[in-house]
Amino acid sequence: MRYNDKELQALSRQPAEMAAELGMRGPKKGSVVKRRLVKLVVNFLFYFRIRFGPIGALLLEHCRVIHEEPNSFSISFLEDPERKYHFECCSEEQCQQWMAALRQASYEFMRRSLIFYRNEIQKMTGKDPLEQYGISEEARFQLSGLKA
């Protein structure tokens, strides 16, 4: 994926859905757990050295969030499921909160939610709620484009 460094830096400074200091271990063999500031912004998970700028970002598309040991979870991507990023939380409650937020951060999850709520509103009111925005006919927001 191509991205602009300046835009990514600017996005990393936006208000976060969640942020915390977590233990993080990268996918390389032999890597050790390091404390990182981890920040979820839209569908990017940024990680920072404490008191420094971002050192990396994960685009949370086509990924799996899996509960590992107590208080920890991992993120892997469908194209390379063996390559995992491991995160350690302070409590099981914090771990569950992070896993839920990460699973809901993808564009595909937001798209499915939009389709679901659009259809529910249309059933209740008889009107397409997206029509006023001029996007009622866009295929990406149609139920027929949704595969369960």
UniProtKB/TrEMBL annotation:
Q: Which SUPFAM superfamilies match?
A: PH domain-like
According to its UniProt record, what is one Pfam family this protein matches? PH
Domain spans labelled PH: 15-107
Provide the GO biological process annotations: endosome organization; receptor recycling; retrograde transport, endosome to Golgi
Taken from the UniProt entry, a GO cellular component term is: trans-Golgi network
Q: Which InterPro entries match?
A: Boi1/Boi2-like (IPR045188), PH-like_dom_sf (IPR011993), PH_domain (IPR001849)
This protein's source sits in the domain of life called Eukaryota
Protein name, entry field:
Pleckstrin homology domain-containing family J member 1
Q: Give the organism the record lists.
A: Bos mutus (wild yak)
